[in-house]
Amino acid sequence: MQMSKQTGFTLIELMIVVVVVGILTGIAVPAYTDHIVRGKIAQGVGALSEAKVRMEQVFNSERTYNCALDFSPVFNETPFSVAISNCTTTTFTMTATGKSANGMSGYTYTINQSGEKTSKTPSVTASQSCWLLSKGATSC
Q: What sections of the protein cross the membrane (predicted)?
C-alpha cells in the first residue's frame, strides 16, 4: 500500500496568513491616510504662500494691496479654497479652507500681510499661531 502525499495549506496556516495580513493592514492604512493628508496640507499652504507673494508683488508695484485679485487659479489643483478678508490698502488676511469633497473638512490656514500664520485642524479646536502640517499635530 502506497501513501499519497497531500499538498496544500492547512486551515491553521491559512488563518495565520489572514491574521498577519490584518495586522499589516491595520498599521498601513492609517499611516497611508495620514501621509495623503500631509501631502494635501502641503499643497494648501504652498498655494497660500504663493498667493501672499503675489499680493506683496502687487503692493511693491502699486503701493497698495489689490483686494480684487483672483487667486482661485492658484488653488485649482489643491483641496483648498481661498478667501481674502480684512483687506485695505495696507492690510489683508488670506484664508485657505479645506474642501470637504477632498477630505479636508475642518482644515483652515491663514496668513496676513505681516506673515503671521494661524491654523486649525480637526485635531485642534483653538487656532494655533503657526501652520500645523499634519493631521495629528496639536501644537507648534
A: 12-32
* Residue 7: per-residue pLDDT: 76
* C-alpha to C-alpha distance for 44 and 140, rounded to whole angstroms: 18
Distance (Å, rounded) from C-alpha 89 to C-alpha 17?
65
pLDDT on residue 38: 93
Answer yes or no: are the C-beta atoms of 135 and 37 closer than 8 Å. yes
93 touches 84 (CB < 8 A): yes
- Alpha-carbon distance of 14 to 28, in angstroms, equals 21
Cell of 43: 499643497
Tell me the pLDDT tens digit for each residue of 47-74: 999 999 999 999 999 999 998 888 888 8
Backbone angles phi, psi at 124, to 5 degrees: -125, 120
pTM of the model: 0.81
3-state DSSP call for residue 112? strand
